[in-house]
Amino acid sequence: MRLPRSAVVAAVLAQLLAACGETLGPSARPLAPGLLVDSLATLTTLTQTPLFLSYRVLGPLSAVPGAAAAAPIFPDSMLSRVFHWDTVAHHYASLPQDTVGGPPSGVRFLLYAPDTTAGRPIEPPQQLGQADLLDASLPDTTRLRVFATGGTPMTTIDYTVRGRFVPDSLSAFFDGCVFDALARSACLTGTVVQRLASSDTTVTVAGTASVGGRFLTFTVGMQLGASQIVQAMDVAVEEPELNEEVRVLGTLAVQGSTPSADIGLLVNGLPFATIRGQGTLTVRGPNNLPLSEEEYALVTILFALPGRLLDVGRALARPAQRNLGG
């Protein structure tokens, strides 16, 4: 039997009224997700440049003979030296003729195209920049300054780091910037704490950052176990012009190759999106409503942001760990 048009309209109206009667929790959406994506992408771009990747590879390889935990950091015999990659010994070395050309208050490491999987320069080495490790100690503080330049476009890493370092643990404070010739910049101030507990290693990176005109506060912790990696995150991004704060917090675990997550994204304290699941992670919008393309891009970059901040903090601390560990 065919219902009269009036009956069909009445039925549709009844469904709409019922839907309106459902209790939906308060939620919010970012006002300009595309602009926020562009700003946060600055950090991704700068930390994926060949220069930064090469510097990240250098960190564990940057030990200078005779370096000390207390100033002066470098012995006089090492000052002004230049370290090259030795393709026979597969480590950095300074030959007798390399006693000039480096900075008078420290040493210079040449940076090469990196093999990030092997954790060393590609062989044969292809130079793309240099990194100076400088003794920037104050009367009451032993402090290492790093100044690295190179790549296309020209990229610069300039920061100081201090703290307490031993082979398996550290407590470091870093402060500085990464920027390039295209006027992109990311400045970070924070701490890195690494501890060995039983068979697990815990790493926590916390601090503040200014990236692409946005202000970040972050705390990211990671527990590295024999069978599982667990990452806890709390990162807030402020949009001062819009009086808006976008925050991502929760946990991400990976056991073998299987991820599980319980992550919430908030806008000014109200739910915006979630990332949840085990094996297959599902992104849902506010009250399960669909996300726009720009909102989904924002969720994607915020999901990756804690891990990137963790990686950057650890990379900035490693040269100090290798040279201020005593």
- The end-to-end span amounts to 89 Å
| Mean pLDDT across residues | 91
**Given the structure, what is the number of helices?**
4
Cα shape:
elongated
The tally of structural domains comes to: 2
Please give the number of β-strands.
17
Please provide a written account of the structure.
- By secondary structure, this protein is an alpha+beta fold.
- The chain has helices at residues 5-21, 33-47, 50-58, 293-323; strands spanning 82-86, 91-93, 106-112, 114-115, 120-121, 127-135, 144-150, 155-166, 169-180, 185-197, 200-211, 214-224, 228-239, 244-255, 258-267, 270-278, 282-284.
- Helix content is 22%, strand content 43%.
- A 15-stranded mixed sheet has the order 2-1-3-6-7-8-9-10-11-12-13-14-15-16-17. It has a two-stranded antiparallel sheet with strand order 4-5.
- Helix 2 (33-47) runs parallel beside helix 4.
- The relative contact order is 0.16.
Structure summarized in a few sentences:
With 326 residues, the protein is an alpha+beta fold. The protein is 22% helix and 43% strand.
Describe this protein with a few key phrases:
alpha+beta, two-stranded antiparallel sheet, 17 strands, elongated
Write the layout of secondary structure elements.
Blueprint: H1 5-21, H2 33-47, H3 50-58, E1 82-86, E2 91-93, E3 106-112, E4 114-115, E5 120-121, E6 127-135, E7 144-150, E8 155-166, E9 169-180, E10 185-197, E11 200-211, E12 214-224, E13 228-239, E14 244-255, E15 258-267, E16 270-278, E17 282-284, H4 293-323
Parallel strand pairs: 1-3
Antiparallel strand pairs: 1-2, 3-6, 4-5, 6-7, 7-8, 8-9, 9-10, 10-11, 11-12, 12-13, 13-14, 14-15, 15-16, 16-17
